[in-house]
Automatic annotation (TrEMBL):
Gene3D superfamilies: Phosphate transport system protein phou homolog 2, domain 2. Belongs to the PhoU family. PANTHER family: PHOSPHATE-SPECIFIC TRANSPORT SYSTEM ACCESSORY PROTEIN PHOU. This is Phosphate-specific transport system accessory protein PhoU. It is found in: Cytoplasm. Homodimer. It comes from Coprobacter fastidiosus.
Length: 222
């Protein structure tokens, strides 16, 4: 039986990594669509969301089957539980990517001021959450908790950009009240990116839980 469960765990890991690649692609496309206001690219993201949802259900079912058929314990059980939670976080990231893309389609009159994008560090925020996803996948592939820990500092930077953006946009609206609608939608996009960073942080915690049996949820990351 040990030989069978090892194969099942290996297949599960491959599935989660494939899901990770799919969601990263969604994030990359959604980011490009946002910066260029490319509606065709945004529609691609929305169309591919169905594939993400189907994949999430498949991985959930596989995790349940492994637990039900093999009753894993210790590190094997931690692995399955971690994959189950990572799968959920990946699906939520994809949801935010879809939300960013719908913004591009639903508000064709919006043309975000390049100066405002620079001041809010939106491009840096996007690049950072993409790097967080890359590092998370690397940490899982290499089974390295040290790589996973590095994600926490990046999340701190994402949080900092989010906090600063609110004040920057508020001052911008005072100077240019006619752009208030655009600015409020931009704040919504920045919040979505901040939540993506949170989900990357959660996935890093799950990798550390699986590898080191350490529960970091609700704790301060240092």
């Amino acid at each position: 039986m040990m030989r069978y469960i090892e194969k099942e765990l290996e297949n599960l890991k491959d599935e989660v990594l494939e899901m990770w690649t799919l969601v990263y692609s969604q994030l990359n496309r959604a980011g490009e669509a946002l910066l260029s206001l490319d509606k065709d690219l945004a529609r691609e993201v929305i169309y591919r969301e169905k594939r993400v949802n189907a994949f999430e259900l498949k991985i959930d079912s596989d995790c349940e089957d492994i637990i039900g058929l093999y009753t894993p314990v210790a590190v094997d059980l931690r692995f399955v539980l971690a994959m189950l939670k990572i799968n959920t976080n990946l699906e939520r990231i994809a949801d935010f990517c879809e939300g960013m893309s719908r913004f591009v389609i639903d508000y064709p009159q919006i043309s975000v001021d390049a100066e405002l994008l620079d001041k809010t560090n939106l491009r840096e925020m996007l690049d950072t959450i993409k790097k967080m996803m890359e590092k998370g996948k690397e940490a899982l592939t290499e089974e390295s908790s040290s790589i996973a820990v590095g994600i926490f500092d990046m999340d701190n930077r994402v949080d900092e950009i989010n906090r600063q953006a609110t004040h920057i946009v508020a001052r911008y609206i005072q100077d240019k009240p006619d752009r208030a609608d655009e600015c409020l939608h931009l704040i919504g996009i920045i919040r979505k990116m901040e939540r993506i960073g949170d989900h990357c942080n959660n996935m890093a915690e799950e990798i550390i839980f699986y590898l080191d049996a350490k529960v970091l949820k609700h704790s301060t990351k240092k």
